[in-house]
Amino acid sequence: MPARNFIVAIELGSTKIRGIAGQKKSDGRIDVLAVVTENADQCIRKGVVYNTDKTIQCIINVVQRLRSQLKSGIKHVYIGVGGQSIHSDLNTITKEVADDMPVTQQLIVDMMDQNRSMDYPEQEILDVEVQEYRADNLLQIDPVGIQCQRLEGNFLNILQRKRHYQWLNSCFEKADVKIAEVYLAPFALADAVLTPMEKRSGCVLVDLGADTTTVMVFYKNIIRHLAVIPLGANNITKDICSLQVEEQEAERMKLRYASAYTEQADIDPTLKYDLDYERKVDSPRFIDIVEARVQEIIANVWNQVSQEYQDKLLGGIVLTGGGSNLKNIDVAFAKQTGVEKIRIAKSVTYTISSSNPAITAHDGTMNTVLGLLAKGDQNCWMPEEQKSQNLFEAGTAPAAAGATAPVAPSAGGEPIQPRDPNTLPPGAVQTMAEIEAAKRAAAEKAAQEAEQKRLEEEERQRREAEANKKPSWGSKLAKWLGSFTEAEE
């Protein structure tokens, strides 16, 4: 039976595009109805779109395969963006408070607006995470009402390259897939795998992907840093290729033999691993190749954790993603960072019900897309009557005289209703389609107001002209006296 109530989410990973559909139950459980994965290494590199045509085709394939499994139409989808184009920047705004007056809510709003207006060349602010405020020398989460002379606001701006964001929205529009919401994939992942205690007491979330490694630092329920490192599990595979084996064979060897850490006493110099064509490689050499790259990745991860928080990580380090399946990866992190508390998040904290092997494998590869699915709150099912509507039926017909022009429709055929960016849910951003729709709506409104003013001005000029043509009472009286004199003569 076709599904009629479900949520659809699409994750654009570092090398793959994943789609998922599921239903949220009243008890908090999520039933997964469909899962698809498309290889996108020919169009996405390190999470960034570089071939729009092939990306469009991948998106179309994902949506069509989901429709086939659901046996239903899809009205819109939730998408998660990440990759190397995203990073954070800590910005500080300082305001002087006159005469030890208490801090007002308006002052806080002004500081937020000033931060939002920051100009980053070729980048745009996707989200802002407010850190503590410093009222004189006192740190406060909410400083409203506190008397001070100087207020300092710290804002963590999450940035993304404008061009990538535009390309991404263009790909979904050309694929005729409407976007319900755009979420930052690392935020969705953090909400899905971290516990409240870990966020509160301080932890580092490390998502070990294929081509990228995402690092997020939390402390006191606030994200303190976000970075994406252009290194991942595929780098280990490519290093194994230095043994003159093809990448497919190198991947097989990594999965079968590789270990992130091996005790010196456990290394057997006589042991050899099979290569192709009856060749073999010495175990110590293979171990050196793998561990060298793992140590580089861990060093880059730990470099993203500032000294301020390295000794405050009571929640430890949480590893997830496909790279977390590497043998002894937790031991390698503990040895190199000195953090003893290491947890591997194989699955999300939500209760998931599914018979799909990709979900039941609990290997960390589906955690992000499951987190995106959990964030969705709108039914993505499209009834048959809406599927048959074309763009003209969806609201592109010319407006009647005096009527308000409709908002331009999206690629999915329904009018886009622009949302106020200040009221978006946490982690959500305005899509380019919504921004363009808002611009068009504002331009149409301005044009209507200008036309109204023109008509009012014409009416005023007409009335003045008619008033000037009308004879005055004096001229009427003179004319009447003149006619009376002529009659007597």
Description:
The chain is of the alpha+beta class and 489 residues long. The protein is built from 16 helices and 22 strands. It has a 7-stranded mixed β-sheet with strand order 20-3-2-1-7-12-22. The model is unreliable at 390-415 (pLDDT under 50).
List the helices and strands and how they pair.
Elements (H helix, E strand, L loop, with lengths): L6 E6 L3 E9 L5 E10 L4 E2 L2 E2 L2 H19 L2 E2 L2 E5 L4 E11 L8 H12 L6 E13 L2 E3 L9 E12 H13 L4 E6 H9 L2 H6 L1 E6 L4 E7 L2 E8 L3 H8 L6 H11 L14 E3 L5 E3 H21 L3 H4 L6 E4 L8 H9 L4 E3 L7 E2 L3 H4 L6 H9 L5 E2 L1 H4 L4 H5 L31 E2 L2 H38 L3 H16 L1
Parallel strand pairs: 1-7, 3-20, 7-12, 13-18, 18-19
Antiparallel strand pairs: 1-2, 2-3, 4-5, 6-21, 8-11, 9-10, 9-11, 12-22, 13-14, 14-15, 16-17
Helix pairs in contact: 1-3, 4-12, 6-7, 6-8, 8-10
What is the distance, rounded to the nearest whole angstrom, between the alpha carbons of the first and last residues?
106 Å
Summarize the amount of helix as a percent range.
25-40%
The tally of helices reads 16
* pLDDT averaged over residues: 85
* Quaternary organisation: single chain
Low-confidence stretches: 390-415
Biggest sheet strand line-up? 20-3-2-1-7-12-22
State the total count of DSSP E strands: 22
Strand percentage, roughly?
15-25%
Specify the overall morphology. globular
If you compute it from the alpha carbons, what radius of gyration comes out, rounded to the nearest whole angstrom? 31 Å
Question: The biggest beta sheet, please?
Answer: 7 strands, mixed
Decide which structural class fits the backbone: alpha+beta
